[in-house]
Amino acid sequence: MRADYSSGSASSPGAVVATVLIGCWAVGVTVVSQTGGWAVDQVLLLTALDRLVLLWPLVSLLTVVAIGTAALPLAMVPRSATIRSTGRVWLAGTLTLGVLGLLRAIPPVHHEAYLAVLAVTATLLALVARWASGRVAGADRWPAPAQPRALRPSVATWLALAAGLALLVPWVWLGALGGLLETVVAGLAAAAVGALAAALLDARFWGHFTGGQPPRPARLVLLGGLVAGVVLLLVGAGTGQSGAQLPLLVALPPVGFALAALHALTRRHPRTAGRTWTAWLVGLTVFGPLAFTDPEEISLLLASTRDVPFWVAVATGAGLVVALVLAIAYGLLLARPAARPPRPALAGLTALVLLVAVGAIGVGVGQPGLHGERLFVLLHEQADLADLPAGTGKAGRDARAEQVYRRLVATAERTQAELRRDLRRLRLEHRPYYLVNAIEVDGGPVVRAWLSSRPEVARVLVSQRLRPLPAPAAPAVGDAPAPDGPPWNITMIGADRVWSALGVTGAGVTVGSSDSGVDGRHPTLVGNFRGGDDSWFDPWNGTRTPTDRSGHGTHTVGSAVGRGGIGVAPGANWVGCVNLDRNLGNPASYLDCLQFMLAPFPPGGDPFTDGRPSRAPEILTNSWGCPPIEGCDPGALRPATDALEAAGILVVAAAGNSGPLCDSVQDPPAPYPDVLTVGAVDQRRQVAAFSSRGPAPGGVAKPDLMAPGADVLSAMPGGGYATLDGTSMATPQVAGVVALMWSADPDLIGDLDRTRQLLRDTATVVPTGTDSAERTDACGGTRNVIGAGLVDAYAAVRAARG
């Protein structure tokens, strides 16, 4: 880049060095700001903090300032028209990133709305860019075009289409589409971004690298490709919600070299040349991440296994390899001075073959079909559960559960009738619920607006659905040895003393687990599965026997009722339900399991007519929470826990792992007053740093109790064992303690108030760990850090007997 052959003016070495440094600065700032912004989003998500609406607008503003202040002098000062053109197009790309980055203020849950706004904004920016390009054309002398070869412009278009389809292959193979509307607007957004790139990298831009005699295509490919790659990096950084732009930071820049090679092939640049093939190539490259991934799933929540983040990384790496191969191949084959252009028929045939290949891959080895989110519709009227028959003990609890079930079903049938009739008429697939008077429905923003306008509907939430994977993650297994006696957590709470000194093991009580599943063949769990045709429900995968790939559910059930020393109540029975798929759920899946726990039903049965309340487990252990990213709002599941409370079923739930922050008991059902919420302590009997603190929303004091939750040994799928951390591990131990209490005094079954009072009265105070007095005071006192204290199984069972 020693001479500007397009204008004849010399480029000083200092200007060339400055251009290189500014380009490197732009790349560095963009990559750091985009990955850093995504990382902040993930930290907020993992710590249960509210999403910062102004995060991405602020990141965009800082990026524009950081890059724009460097690129602006480059666009105005140098004598070289080529360097000025480079500065201007980088400045335009920076402003484009700034404008598109503002759109990420739209919540990720409204993905269709974001894509639609992106399509409109990118289209307007393309029009502005074309207008601005014409305005500045007179500032620099238009480069004289080289003498063209006899070449039809359609050849470059076909080659660009073929390259774009090749870049789409990894996403079609490894990704999955969302809903119909989501896919359509993703296509429109990708087309608009392609048109925007074509407007920025127009004939005037390329002309500064190709003018003069004789033509120098190698310079065009190397220098023009580098400058165009920085522009595409900036455009890609602004495209997609947080997470979706990361693959584009890798795959889009090499496309600049392929575009340069296509322009070198034509050797001619009328004012409209290049727009079509630039739009096709960039648009198809952008369409892959936009359409075949859900940005909410590019999350650290799923990063521990070979889930969506892993496959996105694989697709990104494959896309980078394809882009580099295309850049090299097009550069070598098309940009040589003696290169013969392909025949139009051959170029078109290549594109057609790749189009067929993309379709075959999508249908054959991909994940065909549409996999969009559904809508969760909550109705205003909820069942009246007042004036239920009093009574405790097994018989009294069963009678109450029967009455609750009948009232809930009757209310749902009456209030949902008209809405369900309209949904059938519109052929919208739906599933009704009664534990919360709600319906899950297929549909997008239009259906949501229609449902929200109905008088019987209180609100409409998005029921998150994970897209399928190209291959399932390997099942979790344990590598720890089997215990040769009760582990430390069992002895800390005195459960082993209950077995030996009081002769109580939990016999006659059933604990229900809603989690990732249970390995029903594990030696510690196979003997006390309740059995029958109504003790297992898997709404995700339809399995007929207890299974678990994640291991989370097997571990928690083992801590509650596992034999061999790992479970608090080894004599109790267990039943299970799968409400998590790959560690994520949604309001409907959580409700599926809670509803099954109130009135179990056989495989293929109708929950409304085939429920058996007398078979409901007495205690429910729930080591999960439903955050906003999964679709829940604070009150989404409150009617469900109210109904279970009315039925005499004790709901035990994990406080969460967002400590030591105050106000971090956020995700339902943990904040609800009628739920027994459990925090975690470590082996020193101190509050674990990760254990969430209260108060809960509305000022409710949480957690209620503490239990061991750090380095807890329990069962894993395949017969193994592992130690895990979390309030998830503490929660089933409290459920096990209640099973011991109710086994010791069956008259206590269903008497939830007295049970909770006995647990509080017998709990032991524990230190607040690393929490300072100021931090504890900020949380509202020790009550919102340790609750009533550490659960004491021995004292609680003795108090129950007394």
TrEMBL record:
GO molecular function, one term: serine-type endopeptidase activity
Gene3D superfamilies named among the record's database cross-references: Peptidase S8/S53 domain
One Pfam entry name: Peptidase_S8
Keyword terms of this UniProt record: Hydrolase, Membrane, Protease, Serine protease, Transmembrane, Transmembrane helix
Domain of life: Bacteria
Domain Peptidase S8/S53: start-end pairs: 506-770
Transmembrane segment boundaries: 12-33, 53-77, 89-107, 113-133, 154-174, 180-200, 220-240, 246-265, 277-293, 308-333, 345-365
UniProt entry tagged with the keyword Nucleotidyltransferase: no
Active-site residues annotated for this sequence: D515, H552, S728
GO terms classed as biological process: proteolysis
Family to which this protein belongs: Belongs to the peptidase S8 family.
PANTHER family: CELL WALL-ASSOCIATED PROTEASE (PTHR43399:SF4), SUBTILISIN-RELATED (PTHR43399)
Protein name according to UniProt: Peptidase S8
Organism: Micromonospora maris
